[in-house]
From TrEMBL:
Record keywords, A-Z: Membrane, Transmembrane, Transmembrane helix
Domain of life: Bacteria
Protein name: DUF2905 domain-containing protein
InterPro entries in the record: DUF2905 (IPR021320)
Length: 63
């Protein structure tokens, strides 16, 4: 259940900070999907969210 919460928070962060994260290379990984429906872009950063979840997990183990 905890991993689902981390994944949801990462998903929301990616949607809000999409432009900034693209500059550092996140959001362009294989597995990150962008869909245009009705003139609106929908962004699904599955791979980038998984990478961030692993990094946050490793940091929490070290602290």
């Amino acid at each position: 259940m905890r991993w689902l919460l981390v994944f949801l928070v990462a998903f929301l962060l990616f949607n809000g900070l999409q432009q900034l994260l693209r500059r550092i290379g996140l959001g362009r990984l294989p597995g990150d999907f962008r869909v245009r429906v009705g003139g609106r872009d929908w962004y699904f950063p599955l791979a980038s969210s998984a990478v961030l979840s692993v990094l946050v997990g490793l940091i929490s183990l070290l602290v």
